[in-house]
Amino acid sequence: MISFGSPAWLGLLVLLPLGALAYRRTEVSRRRARAAFASPATMPSVERERPRWRRHAPYALYAVAGTVAVLALAKPETTVAVPREQASVILATDVSSSMRAEDVKPSRLEAVRRAALGFAADAPERLRVGVVTFNHSVQRIESPSADRRGVRAVLRDLQATGGTANGDAIDASLRLVDGRRGKRPPAAIVLLSDGKSTSGRDAVDAARVAADARVPVHTVALGTDSGTITRLDGRVRPAPPDREAMRAVAEASGGRALRAADAQGLREIYDEVGSQVATKDEKREVSAAFAGGAGLLLLAGAFASLAWFGRLP
């Protein structure tokens, strides 16, 4: 989208229709003079080949060049995404026993592993990626870094067991990115969990602390309502994702509540969040491009006039 730094210059555009009107009047006067010089019956012998549209083409190019030149004077600006320095994304990953459910093929845990490894491989180079894995307590922590070998090692070693402590995971993730208050680079936490907290700190309270630190917690409820797991005693119990709990956490932190039904959907979520954190929108002036375009149009008009009529208009 184009905006203008000095829009007052756009007022010059009113000269263009005035110029077009003056050109039309000149053409009318020229036709009258030609008609007075020779009658319509003798005109073919006097003017064997009329230039038709070619007469007007150079002037049309000049008019477009003038329009583009005025736009250049108005300092056109466009919004572009530029890389942020030291931005961080923490993948807070639930490895509780319910992640063994196979409603997401081949399993919730394997879907998480594949999506997260893909994200770590393809995320913007300057983006620092960290990992926190948790069940009923925090299990593994890998500090955010642009060197993602440690992240990949943690992800390859995921094992599903135990309960769920979403609040503790948010706390641990926040500590990884909140070391320099006031000067901290942009960061976000992606909390992937399929259940409500069963132990540890209240997740919504932890999310409010993240909101105070301006670190959004984007939640991903992985799985379907038909998900089940088989317990050690052979009993099968339901394991649907608790979407309401995830939504409450996201809202408390200023993040987004998202859903993923498979590894590809989860990968797309990771990529979207990573791209948002890794870049920022900045306005860039593009006056030079407009001025260059105006110059090329002027040259085109002059070249056409010389080629067709042997003179400049």
- The average pLDDT value, as a whole number, equals 83
CATH homologous superfamily classification of the largest domain: von Willebrand factor, type A domain
Per DSSP E runs of 2 or more residues, the count of β-strands stands at 11
Uncertain runs are: none
Order of secondary-structure elements: EHHHEEHEEHHEHEEEHEHEH
**Structural class of the secondary structure composition?**
alpha/beta
Report the end-to-end length measured between terminal Cα atoms.
35 Å
The rough form would be described as elongated
Question: How many structural domains does the protein architecture include?
Answer: 2
Strand content: 15-25%
How is this structure best described in words?
The structure is a single chain. With 313 residues, the protein is an alpha/beta fold. It folds into two domains: 2-79 and 283-309, no CATH class; 84-261, 3-Layer(aba) Sandwich (Rossmann fold). The protein is built from ten helices and eleven strands. Strand 6, helix 7 and strand 7 form a beta-alpha-beta unit. The longest helix is centred in the N-terminal third of the chain and has 23 residues, at 15-37. The radius of gyration is 33 Å and the shape is elongated. The two termini are 35 Å apart. The model has no long low-confidence stretch (mean pLDDT 83).
Please specify the SSE layout and strand pairing.
Elements: E1 2-4, H1 15-37, H2 43-46, H3 53-73, E2 76-83, E3 88-94, H4 108-122, E4 128-134, E5 138-145, H5 149-156, H6 166-177, E6 187-193, H7 203-212, E7 217-222, E8 228-230, E9 236-238, H8 243-253, E10 257-260, H9 263-278, E11 279-285, H10 287-309
Parallel strand pairs: 3-4, 3-6, 6-7, 7-10
Antiparallel strand pairs: 1-2, 2-11, 4-5, 8-9
Helix pairs in contact: 3-10, 4-5, 4-9, 6-7, 7-8
